[in-house]
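SEVERITY: medium
COMPONENT: batch folding queue
REPORTER: lab tech (J.R.)

DESCRIPTION
The queue accepted two submissions in a row. Attaching both inputs and their returned structure tokens so the on-call engineer can compare them side by side.

ATTACHMENT 1
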Amino acid sequence: MRWIFPLLLALAGMGAPAVQAGPWARAPGEVFLSFSQNMSTSAEALASGTEQISAYSSIYAELGLGRRLTLGLDFGRGEFTDEAILFLRRTLTRPDARIQVGVDLGYGERRVDVLGESQLARIGLSVGRGFDAAALDWLPMGMTGGWVGLDAIAVYDLSRDEPRWKVEATVGLRPTERVSLMLQVIAEEWPGAEVSFGLNPSVVFQIREGTSIELGARTSLGDNPRIGLELGLWHQF
């Protein structure tokens, strides 16, 4: 995975302001970067007072290439694993379409302690729609805008012949131009495990032009229920 860090440096050296990740095509040179740290523990450990906290760090990056093409990078590091996937997304709809649709293909690597490295192939589908303030005037509190999105991703481990999938629905609302409220509902399945579900509420604060902080709760319900907190930094170039 030595290629990931030069690529991140290349992305960081380019671009202009961007919006949240999703099927929306990025203009040539636009860059979106997010860095996040997740700390979680099992529900059993939390109930017993046992300190069994796990950490997971992630980096997500997008670069607009033009012609409705976006280059993306998804990297994550846990206690025993590292995973990096480079993907290319094509937005199928025109920029002025009310509903945006994008598809992506990707390739990457996953390293697991003891098991070693394996190669990954990814395919994804994203659908999203944005809303202006007028479309949200039925809400009890004023909103400057919002969006809904649905992302479905399948990753196939080429080395171990194992598939996994994840579906994520997101609702976002902006009560002010500097604050966004988000709620994500996630379903995913890993090899040898039951389907797990997650409910992730978060708040995003813009602390200065181009830079925002995300504060959120993370829950996972399945074979091993977990609860945690996440701190993220979003930067737009």
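ATTACHMENT 2
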Amino acid sequence: MRKLAIEVPKGLEGVEVDATKISLVDGERGQLSYRGHDVAQLIDWPFTRVALLVVNGDDPAKAQCRHFEVALAKAARLSASDAALLELAAKTATHPMTVLQGLVPLLSRTDEFESFGDAAHGFTIAAKLPALIAGLYRLRSGGALPEPSDLLDPNARFLAQMGLAAGSANKAELARAFDVTQILQIEHSFNASTFAARVVASTLAPVENVLAAALGALHGALHGGADEAALEMAIVVGDPARAADFVDDCLTSGRKIMGMGHREYRVLDPRARFVKALAEKLARGTSLEPLYLTLEAIEARISEQMAERGKPLHANLEFYKGIVYRAAGLPPDYFTAAFAMARVYGYLAHFIESRINNRIIRPAARYIGVIPA
């Protein structure tokens, strides 16, 4: 006899679909932790140490981190076939996220990460993502593919290969802000793109297909693409004085304000608190300050309006992140790709975890169409 279907909320809101040891999103208290470590502490760690913690489950020793950084640096070098594919993609007008999703299954393999088993090639892909993004940017800017870098820190290597903020007076401050932002994006439980990864992983598809599926989900404006959309919104509004009218018009028309609110958090997204502080510091006294002030005015107005309606609403990670990325020199259409450089380690952690007790994810559907005679 067929089991009775269980009706669940649209979008699976509040439904626990599986168990995980990787991260805890505490939406009631506004806390986020990776493997039992609060992100408030983790933002003071090196990026690779946090990435290894998320993947392995244990705080890695200094020697482990060094070995991992060396392996990432070796695997990051694009092969001749990788470079040829990237050069073809650069000639199109395709969004960088679509380029990544298309290239990921085609990248050449290396043997630096054999100890990770089925996930080994996934770490090669993670290593190559920054080089792919930097290469795409440089080629489309009329330059050549960047030379391989000996820098061991993957984020520092990425910024160097992009050629961003090289002459900035606050280069160290920018690098630190970029690092913190990336750490805060490594993992976030069963978000849409991670769940997409787990669905594909459950079919026993290879890791490159799993990562390509996750990247496709991350591109969406309601997910990773909200960072680009939020900054574009601030540019359109153009002035803090116009923020109130903009918000009121959105509330009247039902138009969504990108980067505001989060499915999981009933209070302020803890990541947003850190990113907003970084954005304010980087924007102060620069050409980005009007954009920052416009975002701040939008946030204040919608928070005020929603509080009056008894529905508190706060900025999420994506709302101010564009200011940090622009301060580092990233063009808006590369924001989500930079996000992917960090989140890929979360995807890989979930890929590994899903293999422990795998069962294909195959929900039922409630048919509401015409019943055949």
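NOTES FROM REPORTER
The radius of gyration is 21 Å.
No errors were logged for either attachment.
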